[in-house]
Amino acid sequence: MLSRVAETLYWMARHVERAENVARLVNVNNLLLMDLPKGVSPGWEPLVHIIGSHEIYLKHYSDFSEKNVLAYMTLDPNNPSSILNSLRAARENTRTVREIVPRQVWESINSLYLYVKDHGNDINSKRNRFAHLKHIIDSALMIFGTLDATINHDDGYTFIRFGSILERADMTTRIMDVRSATMRNIPADLPFENIQWMSVLRSLSAYQMYRQEMGVRLRPEDILEFMLLSPSFPRAILFCLNKLKSLVENLPNNIEMLERIDHSIDDLKAQDITQLKGLVMHDYIDELQIDLADIHLQLAKQYFLK
Amino acid sequence: MTIDWKNYQLKSFFDELIDEQGRPRPHGKKLAQFLSELSDTDLNGARAAADFAIKEMGITFTVYGEGSSIDRAWPMDIIPRIIANREWQKVEVGLKQRVKALNMFIDDLYHDQKIIKDGIFPKELLDKSVNFRQQCVGINPPHNIWAHICGSDLVRDGDGTMYVLEDNLRVPSGVSYMLENRSVMKRVFPEMFEHIDILPVNDYPSQLFDMLCDMSPRSQDTPEVVVLTPGIFNSAYFEHCYLAQEMGCELVEGRDLQVNDDDCVYMKTVNGLRRVDVIYRRIDDLFIDPEAFLPDSTLGVPGLMRAWRAGNVALVNAPGAGVADDKVIYTYVPQMIEYYLSEKIQLPNVETYRCYEKDDYKYVIENIEKLVVKPANESGGYGLLIGPNSTRQEQQECIERIKADPRNYIAQPTLSLSTVPTLDGDNTEGRHVDLRPFVLSSGQQTYVTTGGLTRVALIKGSLVVNSSQGGGSKDTWIIDGENG
């Protein structure tokens, strides 16, 4: 596998995964807002924080109205993580490795990009919004499913999986960070706390799996434990790190990579969840994000074209 | 717009499907009937389905200087161009003969230059050749093949004769569109393939791969073959990807390769360096190796020529092969065939005036309004003057260019290119076409594509078929059996 190709496949997967995650995020927020009374509602602003582009946003918009945030999250060329930009990047990456990627995958990525580009305004209509986002999520899942079923499970696929899972872990940390920050400002006994925690789980498609693994009650500590330390939920940080490790085991010259990931896993397991509140939580998430960024840098240093 | 062949406008051109009496040609009967049974809705539906398939399959081409829009959907007309297999067999023989002689000519030029010493080919032409590479003199590529892949442009004139218009020996492109046009047609008109004996075209990628493997300097079962592309901004990038994908080999850019002190070529992989045996390069000579050619080229690989000269890697087409891809040298192909093969040319050249010859020069200047004038070394239709469609001023400017550099211009009579029924809005009208078949030569055997890429001038009356200048394409059917 060419180093350049490995890098391109990695980014292709990250971008598709990101488009899917942003679509999930918007969808869940949309559903959440319908459940919350105006006074309690965090509105749309948290989404901009989650994808970490508050500053860019404020250069182009003066408020966090539904219309503006939706435009920013889905179509805005100024937002590097907008769905359209992610898909454009995924498509450009795929174009440069079309000879590696199964034809059907290229066609799916291409047609998803064209769909979002041509149907961008569907997001503005409350009625079409759900179907629109669902189509994006389903298509992304189909792309990964098609890859799994049709591409050789060799080094190339390892890089695809790696990109996808690293991006997923990154998004999980972002959602935890921002949502827990919003919640800190709400008195704990408010009746809507449950609904908000449910929505945190839902943005990770984790609600049902949480119920199965952790029991029926929604308790903040349990939710954090589940999202950080579940070894079986595919969006939990520990699960993702374990997966990254097992992927790297297939790659050549992997000693430093393995050490890097092991280090993050050990750190994570050593955390006392009950202490993860308020700013401590925020600082820890920061650390985790730096860890994930380091894992990326190590991968790039080891395998990508210099 | 249901097609009524009786009212199909033939004018004075040779039409590939309909004869002078307005009847389908024998091998086109089934196709003509099938088409005339389609309703407006069917035709529009088929056209929309083809456009959709092309967009969805991401079949694109690139036009330089379009800013951010680097790819455009490939324009394909859904009415195929047909050729009877019986005729095609003869064309194939003619192409093989031609490419064989061209390869012998190139090899001769880089060695003893017998054809010059024997007075058949003038030395001055070689001295002023833009594509003759001093760096290639004395090199012996495997099996003495230089132009492994040749795309010759064929046109049919008013009298029905097929002529060779030019030979593309540098990095001819278009074959991926030939293959993709067929896959689109199979999606759009599956019924036609049931009832008509259309010969398949999809053998090309494996033929190409076999030929490339035959060139490997190391004798092993699966040599490492790569396609070298200038990158995503090249106009033929789609094709580079497509061919690498179809052959299952790596698509590399210059920065993926390096030449080590052992004069071998390696590619940089996640496992470290890996030796490369054969490079199907889609980068022009001057850019492939900054050590040997343009020093500031970033597309190429420093030391590539060194590795090639040492016989450690095969380059396809060989550097320097473009010397015969020159419209002045083209005029000598009949003499080459006689000289090297002692045969008569089977596929005729178009009558061509060489502006560096006194009589021809005079004729061209005096009759420029009737002629097509071409620079000897441009491709893609750039720098072309079509006399009858040009203004006085354009003609005058062209004459000035010829005067300044007569060696680099040729002129040909304006051919009345054959037409094929083509959808234009709600009408079906004849549009001019050419045909680019591809010939693969390994030294042991020669393969010709079944048909080739038919390019069509979509604009009414236009003779320019290049996709960069408003041209489109058609699927090309070689039809077996007497009654197609």
Order of helices and strands of chain A: HHHHHHHHHHHHHH
Output the strand order for the largest sheet of chain B.
Answer: 3-22-21-18-17
Rg of chain A to the nearest angstrom?
19 Å
- The overall strand count of chain A is 0
Q: Helix/strand/pairing class of chain B, anyone?
A: alpha+beta
Average pLDDT rating of chain B? 91
Count the helices of chain B. How many? 15
Segments of chain A where pLDDT lies below 50 for 5+ residues? none
Helix content of chain B: 25-40%
Largest inter-chain contact set: A-B, 26 and 27 residues
Overall 3D shape of chain A: globular
Helix content of chain A: over 70%
What does this structure look like?
The complex is a heterodimer of chains A (306) and B (484). By secondary structure, chain A is an all-alpha fold. Chain A has one domain (3-303). Helix content of chain A is 73%, strand content 0%. Chain A contains 14 helices and no strands. In chain A, helix 1 packs antiparallel against helix 7, helix 1 runs parallel beside helix 8 and helix 8 runs antiparallel to helix 14 (278-303). The model of chain A has no long low-confidence stretch (mean pLDDT 89). Chain B folds into three domains: 5-217 and 313-346 and 415-479, no CATH class; 218-312, Rossmann fold; 353-413, Dna Ligase, domain 1. Chain B starts with 28 loop residues before the first helix and ends in a 5-residue tail after the last strand. Helices cover 30% and strands 22% of the residues of chain B. With 484 residues, chain B is an alpha+beta fold. The mean pLDDT of chain B is 91. In chain B, helix 2 packs across helix 6 and helix 3 crosses helix 13 (333-341). A five-stranded mixed sheet of chain B has the order 3-22-21-18-17. Chain B contains 15 helices and 22 strands.
